[in-house]
Amino acid sequence: MTEAKKEKFIVPIGPQHPALKEPGNFEFTVDGEIVTDAAVRLGFVHRGIEKACENRNYTQDLYLLERVCGICSHVHATAFVLGVEKLAGVQAPPRAEAIRVLAAELERIHSHLLWFGVAAHEAGFDTLFMYTWRDREVVMDILETLSGSRVHYSVNILGGVKIDVDQKLSDLIKKDMDFLEERTEYYMKVVTTDDTFLGRTRGIGTLSKDRAKLLGAVGPTARASGVKRDIRVNAPYSGYKEFPVKMVIDQTGDLEARFVVRLKELYESYRLIREILEKIQPGEITTRIKRKIPEGEVISRVEAPRGELFYYIKSNGTEMPDRVKVRTPSLCNWGTITDVAVGHKLADMPMLLAGIDPCFSCNDRMVEIRSDSQPSQMMNWDGLRKYGIEYYR
Amino acid sequence: MNLSLHPLILLLIFPGGLFLMNIGLLYEWADRKLVARFQSRVGPRWFQPFADTIKLLAKEEIIPNGVHKIMFLALPIIALTGALTAAQYIPMFGFEASFSFEGDLIVVLYMLSMMTLSIGLAGANTLSRFTIIGATRALTQMFSYEAPFLLALLSPAIAAGTWNIGKINTFTGENIWLILAQPIGFIVAVVGLMGKLELPPFDAPEAETEIVAGALTEYSGRGLALFHIGKNVELVIGLTLVVIFYLGGIANPIEFILKSAGLFLVVTALQSMFARLRIDQTVGLWWRLGALMGLLQLLAIIFGRYLGEILR
Amino acid sequence: MAIGVLFGDLVKALFTKPATQNYPFTKTIAPERLRGKLVYDPEKCVGCMLCMKDCPSNAIELLTVDKINKKFVMRYHPDRCVFCAQCVQLCRFNCLNMSNSLWEMASTTKEAFEVYYGREEDIAFLLERAAQPGINEPPCE
Ligand code: SF4
Ligand code: SF4
Fold first, then answer.
1. Alpha-carbon distances, residue A129 vs A135, A139, A219 (angstroms)
2. CA spacing 20 to 30 A to A34: which of A267, B24, B96, B271?
3. Please, what are the domains in chain A?
4. pTM here?
5. What is the dotted CATH code of the domain comprising C35-131?
6. Which chain C residues have a beta carbon less than 8 Å from that of A62?
7. For the segment A64-79, what is each residue's pLDDT rounded down to a tens digit?
8. Is it the case that residue C136 has pLDDT exceeding 70?
9. Which residues of B touch A27 (CB under 8 A)?
10. Can you give the residue ranges of every domain in chain C?
């Protein structure tokens, strides 16, 4: 064939699609079943949270930022709180730091189990999906008992935490950890031995170490490709200094490796939680912090279940921040999808998408596209209004 | 049976169309309920499929732009007709089949394929990309499972020495259960049935996480309801066929219900045990494993018969 | 390499009760710390207004009836509240609490989402005054 095929067959996935639980748009150009090109379009759930932060005070921002994501809410609050505490020159008491880590690890468990179920569902393995979500209910219950809410735990406050663990709670958590560990072992067996499941994961979407580094992958996606990238280990923050974690690394980089890495991280979380409950020191859980935060800027990095979460906070000495910038992990991982998608089957696409554990609500932000040939697409309000009126005329 | 009943009442009892449709919906309920129980869920109540169907039938049917209208409207009817016609040749609930002749097995198999063919055409008829991919997959799958399924059903027929379903029923009823004599054939038949009905894990043609609802994405209202009913009737027929051929036939209603339920349990367990196969994996499995196994089985039986004749 | 690793669990699931909860008919007891509807104790409140100032969703309005005699009425909007318990944490006089039994707050009317807390006579006084035309509500700060 000399002449290239003019007519491309593009399969759109999203913004409304059963495979996606949140809106995002992916366009896969296919040749039969084989994907020849992939493109991502985001921005359907932009909520303007960063801007909203600028006219609320620090305490209110804490709760607003917790709602960036429904799955990793605690970790957002932790990143913000750590940054603000650094600006204010305040150090939360050790017990508070330990409780922050405890909540973060519980959250990681619930997030990874949630992801596991979703990924199984994308593979058409609904039974596994139902089972993991049933077992995830255990950790949700712990979180509810511990903090009082299933989704937005609101454990953090500026200068400490709200909640404390007592003996009864700690016994309960330990018992549930045992149960979850047993279940995780079982799931590990399923993902590493079940033939039908392996057929969908082994050797699919292999991301080499170099590509992962080049594309800036973070979190379990990067670790499954052998990139040593985990903020909890590389730059320990909060309670992780006192309670170190082991980094889980896999070299293969395919979907199976991502399953294995996430499941192994669960083991690590169980271990860490037990250790915290054993070793936690009695003491204060809050310190006082001034309402007005001194002028300055700070960068705060934490490891969310999906990878490195980055906060930039600038204060101008008032009760409200001057600028809050959030860079969420999912955003860094999109590049890996378009990179590995080419050459795979269309049927693998949902699995590949799920493989990076995408969270759409946390990565929709304004993006300015600059290109040499086109002028910048920035618009002021009047221009936008006029454009809108013209568009819908 | 030559009862003189009002035609409307006759419609309600076997092998009336309405009766079959209701049984089909009941089967759908059993399927969903059992899968739900396997997945540790509660599952729907018994009238859910009925309610769904009534709702769909009452809804507006949207005809998308760019389709061949007559085909769009006729295909669901053809599919359902195919399934219902096939049912006429099958003894069910211990009743005799309403029609039967030497070779009706072949007719039934072709009637059952009409369903898939209609679905494939329905998908190719619309402009949506999902339906086109769904249609391609449905037809690919049809071409791959047809052979093993056919082979799996042929071997009992050869063992019985007849192509008549009714006679095969009597034959299997008198001899030992063929599942013991031909276990490979049984496996191929069950798996083939699941492929034919596009049940998980062979549901690539309608994999919702990839191509929404596959070939039927553009269907709504009446058309969708008819396709659903057709599929359910096909489920009834398929299960009954396997019961007749491999589980010692059906002589009376109780036997029928018990055996069907047992087979149903196996099928639903298989449905919930695996991850969905990609279409290339499905095809590979069929041609490499399914067809080969079916063929081996067939050869073994022919050889066995031949040997038996010589010995006699 | 195996096929059907899940089989054991399937059989188990078939013979155990479904994990689904039959919600409105069977309810599990909410944990002690559950953050449900906010409750306010007017006797202890000193009117420092901290709770109002830091509420992230403006769910609290503290209406002053008589500042000197510490008479306050709280207008609470459960539909705006995000149940973060920041107000509970802030109040140094323990007049705010989150109930762990009042958490089923669905309602078909808007009225249920405007709750008045306070001494009865104060609420009556406020509502009466609000009913009269021309007089504005007391300022909330
Ligand atoms: S719980 Fe939070 S949102 Fe609700 S009233 Fe208190 S501070 Fe406001
Ligand atoms: S913080 Fe407590 S004392 Fe202060 S106004 Fe609110 S309820 Fe009253």
1. 10, 16, 22
2. B271
3. 49-328 (1.10.645.10)
4. 0.85
5. 3.30.70.3270
6. 56
7. 888 888 888 888 899 9
8. no
9. none
10. 35-131
